[in-house]
Every structure is written in C-alpha cells, then in structure tokens.
Queue: 4 jobs
Job 1
Amino acid sequence: MSIACNEARRAGDNIAQLTDVASLDQPESDERLTIFTDKTGMVKAARLLLSSVTKVLVLADRIVIKQIITSRNKVLATMEQLEKVSSFQEFVQIFSQFGNEMVEFAHLTGDRQNDLKDEKKKARMAAARAVLEKCTMMLLTASKTCLRHPDCESARINKEGVFRRMRLALEQVIEIVTDARPSAEGEIPPVSIYTGVQEFKMKVESLRDSLHVLSKEDLTTMLEVILEHTEDFTDSAYTSHEHRGRILELSRQARLELEHLVSVWMHTQTLKAKEAPEDMELAIIKTCQCMNELKRELHGAAALLAAELLKCHADHLVLKALKVAGVEGNLEAVAGYSCKLSEQKEQLVETCRLLRHISGTEPLEITCIHAEETFQVIGPQIISAAQTLALHPSSKIAKENLDVFCEAWESQLNDMSILLREINDVFEGKRGEKRTYLSLPRPGKHSANLKTVKAVKLDTEEQTKIAKSGLELRLLTSDMDSEAEKWEDQENEAVRNAQTMSSMAYSIYLFTRGEGLLKTTQDLFHQAEVLAEEGLRLSSTLQIFSNQLEDDDKAALLLETEKLPPICQQLQTMARSPVQGKNTTFMKVDTAVQKTKGIMMVLLQILPIYCKLLKKYKKVKSCLGSPQNWNENHLQQMAVDEDSLSGKKVNSVNSFGVKSLEQHMANLTFLESK
C-alpha cells in the first residue's frame, strides 16, 4: 500500500510540474519541460497515476475484506467459548466480549454493504446482517436458559439452533465480500416466474428484428420452464379454485399462442422475408399479451394469499396461547398449539415461495427467500422454547426466552407486510424511491416538534448509521441487565433507577429499528429528556449515600458518579432544544442515541463499585451491632414517596433475563398520558 501511494504521489508531482502555469511565463530558452514540450512525459505520468491509484483502490479493498474476515474469525472463536461455558459468571464475561466483537463486525459489514454496487449482493448482505442482529439477542436468552436448566433437552435444541443459524449467516457474509460461490446449503433457487416471463417476452419480441436469432426449441423450452414453475401455484392447497382454474387456462392458452407463433414464424422463414409480416406481428403481440395476463393472475393469487394470511395472523393468538400454556406448565396444550403454529409456518413458508415468483426484482426475490428461511427456522425454535417453559413454568428466563423468539416471529410478519407492499409497488410501476433493505431500521414518522408533525425519511446511509448505534445501545442494555441480576436486593433504589434507565434506553434502541412505542422524533426526544432526569435522580441518590462512607470509599464512588450529571445535563439540554429541517433533525436523533450510550456506559462503571461499597457498608454496620441502615432505608422511603407523588411506576426486571417487550412498554408511561 505504501509503495502504491508513493507511486501515485510521484505521478501526481510529475503532472503538477508539467502543468505548472507559472512555468509558461518563462522564456523558451530556459528549456523547461512543460505539457507542450513533453507530451510523452505527460502521457507516461497520467498512465502511472491511473495505475497507482488503481493499485491503491484494489489494496484498500483487500484490506477491508481481510478486516471483515478477521472480525468474523474472532466472532466464531468467541461463539465456541460461549457454547462450552458452564457457569453464568463466565458466560456474562464472554458475552460482553462477544457483544463488542459483534458491534465491530456490524460496523465493517454495514460500510461494506453501502459500498456494494450489485443490488443482489447488497440484498443478500442485508439479509445476513438482519439474521445476525436478531440472533445476537436470541443467543443471549437461549444460552442463559440452557445454563439455568442444563438437563433440559428442548433448551439445548433451542440454543443449538441459534448458533447454527448465526454460523450460516457469518459464512454468507464472507461469501459475499470474497465473491465466492455459495455453499450448497445457501444456493439461490431457480429463476422466478417473473424473471422467466420477462426473458421469454424479450426473446419473442427479438423476432421482429431477426427471424434467425434463436430456434423454436429455445422458445418452447423457456415456456415449459415457466409453466412448470406455475405448478407451485396450482399444486398449492392455499390457492383458491378460481385462481387455480384461471392459471391453468392461461397456461393452456400460452402453449397455443406459442404454437401459432412458431407456425407463422416457420412459414415466414420459407418466404425469406426480411422483416416480420403483419400476421407474425399479431402473433407476437398475442403471445406477449397472454404472458402478461398469466403474470398478472399469478401476482393476484400470491398477493391475495399473503394479504389474507397477514390479516389472519395479525392478532398472534397462537403465540399468546403458547405463552399461557407454557406458564401454566400444560404440556398437552403446548403440543396442541405447537401443531397450529407448525401449520401457520407451512402456510407462511409457501406464501413466501409464491411471492418470490412474482417479486419483480432480484433484491425483493432475495428478501422473499430470507423471509421463507426465517419462518422455517423460528417456528421450531418457538416450539422448543415453549416446551422448555412448560417443563419449568416458574422459570423467568425460560419465559423471557420464549418472548424473544415470539418477538422475532412478529417482527418477521411485519417485514413480510412491508415486502408485500414493495412487491405490489414494483408490479404497479411505482419505483420513485430508493429501496430500503429490511435489515436496516424502518423509521416511522419523524418530526421536529409536536405542533407540526412532518414525516422525515432517512436515506440508506443515515439508517445504517442509526442502526449501528442502536445495536451498540442494545448490547449495553443487556450488559446492564446482567449487572442488575447480580444484586440480591432487587428493590434497592439505585438498582431500580438503573433498571428504569435501561428500560428507557431499550425503547430508544427500538426506535432505531422503527419499532416500539416511540413513533416520532419528538417521542424520542421526550424519552431522552425523561432518561436524563432519571440519571440526575440516581446521581443525587449515590452522592447522599457516599456521605455515609469512609473517605477512600467515598472518593472511589464519587470519581465515577461525578461523570453522570454532566452527560445527563447535556442530553437534557439537547432534547429540549428546537430543530428544523431534515439534516438537523437527524443530527439531533444521532446525538440523542450517542448520549444515551454514554450514560449507559457510565452506569456500567458505577453499579459494580456501588454494589461492592454497599455490601462493605452493611457488613461494617452488622459487625458493630447496629440496626438496619436507617439512612439508606430513609433514602429509599423518600424516593418511593417521591415516585408515588409523581405517579411514577417503576417496574422490576425479571431475574436472569433481558426485559420483555411488555415491560419496556410499561415503563414508557409518558406516552399513555399524551
């Protein structure tokens, strides 16, 4: 790289000397070389510059690829450690390292995705990154469930499924960045009907220009391949009788139209005509019209089926019933609802397969494949998670694990509805906006203030940046949960404050994905302001507690605690400041996410120290034979009274698990008061 850069610099210097304007004013007797006197030198310098810059770009590309491969290898190595871990304490340490490595991998692959020019590769990369992002949280709860219930077979199966899927996604990323051929397990299915019809029509219409451009066997084979794929529709139990009959009729008509076209075509060739006569032109038009009608019928059948399925499963009744049966420990009911979920899964998988045929573009086709694979994998994982909960109905982490997988299912249904809308837009010719891949966050309406709520759409680069920050924030909230789980006294005021702040940070993470209750930027800024207030309250509590400590201990606690008020005040000021325009609104959103990350990082430094000093303080008091810590209890009572007066509700966190979506929503009380 250094050699290539030096070559480029030398070539640039040569060109600069040859094109120096000042040298043109010198007399010719000076015999200075210029662009006019040394054209050969100019050509050589230009070629050297082009060659060296090309080398720099190629080497830079190789370095990026090597960085991604190295990052992937680190993730795989840590995953192997996570699989073998046997204690919760060891798991927390390794998962923290794993989280940092996943964030690094997300940054590298996100930048690479933006640099890709091939839309097909970009869509595959987006799908793989979506799998990795969702599986990171599944891996957390599935592993913790396995640690809590090491002898449970269904928990082991559940965990192994997550690890297997992550490894496949990591391998797919490497295949894309190295331009390697897909493995047998990840091969792209045959050409879709939509693509097949488009290619067939192009071949038919090419007969206008040349009667000898292809053979009749080629056209017949192409049509038969298309009609063979239509059997996916006609053989499906979910295709209506009307659509099935119409598809079969149009398939028969397409064969007849092609036979007529071939007949006219062969006759025209015998006449040695230079261009297609009227009867052949008519045959070409009728053949293409028939194929368009077939394509429209197939689109109608698949789109109608998908819309009906999404509407039918919008209430998630089976998932809710599975959760209830699991909590009740009713294995028989779990088995019954598992069968219903399996039926749902088969319907959705087949619908995704049909949607792929009429998707219209390669990126949408790959997204259909991703949706199909997701339903295929998550369905059995939900069932294994429900079985684990039914076997251990009192296990909070088993319930948490089931919630995580159910959320993934619901999220994929939401993605599928967006996918259906995009397919319909392509079919209707609506291609005005840049495509947004489903692995990137899908923000809702954005506004600068409540009075004038105006939708602001982030472009792909902005979405990627917010998505990266969101993933980092999600991992920080997980670390916070793990830290809080170590506390014996879950009602401790500092712990409750930290849990509430973690819950708010999680809601901000959901916003970066276009999910949760925060729908507008104003919602986000209000949540950030409440988070800052909670942080200042926690800081005050810790400072009062520090007054009861010895000088060295007090200094150690205050050293970390004093970092909290400034960043909370910065977030508070930023949240209250008005903004106008898309760019400034995005910058404010990004700042809010970054400041929230900063607060969570400070909390992760404070809590372990506070925990250690509180234990020491209680031990000293106990040794002295003193009663319960009056000051601490008094502080807690004051805080409880303050919360009750303000109408604030503080939820505790399920032990040994990440907070469920319901708990995060419950903490967003400000939205309910709007």
Note: DSSP finds 23 helices and no strands in the chain.
Job 2
Amino acid sequence: MENKMVEYRKKFGLSQEKLAEKLGVSRQTIISIEKGKYDPSLPLAFEIAKTFQTTIEHVFIYAGKEGEE
C-alpha cells in the first residue's frame, strides 16, 4: 500500500528507530511499511496516524483492487 510515512516521519523529526520505539515495533517493520512491502494491521495503522496527529487516510493511500472504480 502506498503511504506518506517518510514524509510524516521527517516532518515530526523522527528516525525510523525512534518511530519504531514509539509504536512498539521493530525498525525493520517501519522500513517495510515505508517501502510498501508490508501493510500494517488496522490497530498499528491507527497508532501511526495518531503519532502523526492525523488520520489513516492522510498517511495511507488505498488504491483499491484492480477493476474497482
């Protein structure tokens, strides 16, 4: 899933390590989410958005399934 994690993380002055600590996940998880290789669970997505003081929709871009309009 496409996302704006790097943009928000830099805006808040957080390293991948610091963000991972705040969220209780590994740095590797943050890297994978940022690269779009891993979709976070719904609770984790909410925590990420909360950390960045915004909504899930602003952090994560859901393109939908192919064929959906």
Note: The chain is about 55% helix and 5% strand.
Job 3
Amino acid sequence: MGKCLSRTRVFEWCKCFREGRARVENEPHDRRPRTSVTEPNSDCADALIHENRHITIKELGAMLSISVGSVEDTVKYHLHYRKVNARWVPRTLMDMNKMVCMQAASHLLHQFEDKGDAFLKSIVTTDEIAKTTMETLWKLKWNLLTHPLYSPDLAPSDFYLFRRLKSDLQGMRFVDNEAIIQTVQEWIRRKTTSLF
C-alpha cells in the first residue's frame, strides 16, 4: 500500500501522457553539479573511517571541509556504513568479506585443534591495537592471526604476567604514576624473552 501513487499523482501522470509524454523516467534537466558527495570525498571518508572507526560525522566534515549533511550522505548512502556501539561498520558484509570471515574462522579453528587450550590462553580480545604495539609484535616476530572483519582485534595475551608482576611489586609504595611506570618498565626489561 505504501508504494502506490496517490490519486492526485495518478491524475498528474495521466495528464502528462495525454499531452505527449512517452517515458516515465525523469527528463534530463540542468542542475548544479555535485561538489561534496564525490568519489574522491567518498574514498577519503572511507580511509578515515578505516583508520578510526570511532570518528564522528562532525570530525569527518572538518577533515574533508564539507558540510555535515554531505558527510552523512556519503557515509550512510554511498559507503553504506552505520554506527554500532559508537563504531562505523558496513550495513551488510559483501561476498568477499564473508569469504575472509570464513577463512579466518577456519584458520582459528585449525589453530585450536592443533594447540588446544594453549592457543586460547595466547590470545586476548581488545578494541584496538596501537601502532607501537604492532611494531613491537613484528620486531618480536610473533605470529599474528587473521580474524574476521569488525570482530575485536586479537593479540597475544599478557594476562599471565599480572600475577608475577603483582607478587614482585608486593609491598612497594609509589609517590606518583611515573614511579609506577618506571618500575614496571624496569621489571619488564629484566625479564628474559622466554617469559613472553
């Protein structure tokens, strides 16, 4: 019912056809060309969203120097993103995304079958992995797991270190946060790489 033309609109179309109109498509007409919702702006917005999934429409508008309305059109109707838990995610996964998800899940399953509980203890889900953390992981030559798009990032777990750190620092008093940071950094430097 909602997709039917109103009675008035039907009469208008009948009049147009009686006057010689032969097509139902819009007639070509002159209009101002789009200047904000363009391919380069869409590409740039997509790159910025991939870089920071928490970015806001206002921030994108300021970075792209276009209006908030144009950014909203670009993000929602051209890139087909929507906000979920304050993060931009695509409305639906494309076939390629589904294939990557399937491959990642299959790889994770094989890892679990090979290593069992030891594999589960070696990962922790996080919201974000900082650039410096990634660089450190590459330097240490740790194996990074592929994972499905828009799932929390996976990283080697350091939870087992907390118990050891806690027992080594037990009874110590610190005057400020800098003293704590320095002590923890020294503690990490003294440990051998086999601990990690």
Note: The beta strands are 81-84, 87-90, 123-126, 153-156.
Job 4
Amino acid sequence: MDSFRGEFVSTELAMFRAIKAYKKAYALNFIKKGKAYFKTKKEVREFIKESFRGEDLFSGGDGTPYIEGVIICVDKDGDLRNKFIVNENGVYKRLDSIDEDRVYEFLFKNQHRIGKINLMSVEKKEIESEVKKDCEVLPQKADERIIQIMNKITKVIK
C-alpha cells in the first residue's frame, strides 16, 4: 500500500510540474510572437509567482524601473527580490509593496521582458560607453584609446 501511495504522489507531482512547465512555455512562446498574453496586472502577478518561483525574472536597463546590472528574481515564497542589493543577513533585498507594484505594472505593459535576463556586467557597459564617447569626441585618437581600454579589460579578466 505504501509503495502505491508513494508512486501515486510522485506521479501526481510530476504531472503537476509538467503542466506548470507547459503553461509557462506556452505563455512565453505567445509573448515571444509579439502578442499580449495577459489581460490584467493580476494575471501577470499570479503567473510570475507560480511559474518563476526560485528563478530570475528580468534584468534592469532599457526603460525598466531599475538600472542596468540589476536582476529581479522570485524567491521560493513567491516574493520579488533585488539581486543587486544584499541585506545584513546575506540575503537579497526583498522588494516592498510599492516596488513590487511598479515591477508588475512594468511587466504588464512590457510582457516581452518577462524572463529576459541580460548578464552583461556593469563594468563592461561602462567601458563600452567610454569608448563610444571618446570615439565621438576625438576620432583621430580613437585607436590609441581603444588599445588602452583593451589593456584595461585584459587586466580585469586576469
């Protein structure tokens, strides 16, 4: 009897996880085609809390409420956390209700950003903007500046 119950529970759990994964893949595929899948902000909130539990949700920059380099994730309890800030307990900072509402509002309006993570480092972004600025101001010295910045990058990588 116990083996049957254990088998039943694990089969039910596997089926539940498979259905959840299918719903997530279906919604993200629908959004990827450029269509709006969710009709309300509440639907976005429920989908994210159910489907992205323990995963990264989106990264900052490009019109988001956060700067580039910030990653917002969903913890095991379904709360949103900012991976850019670590509190005194060594845990990522939990977003307050105002920030959570701002995130859900942004994701409702920009559904294509759900699940999109840009892992480009902030330092790399700063170096790219520095090169662009230097190339615009002094085109004749651009090659020298690029060599200096490339040396700086190789030092960071080492």
Note: The chain has a mean pLDDT of 81.
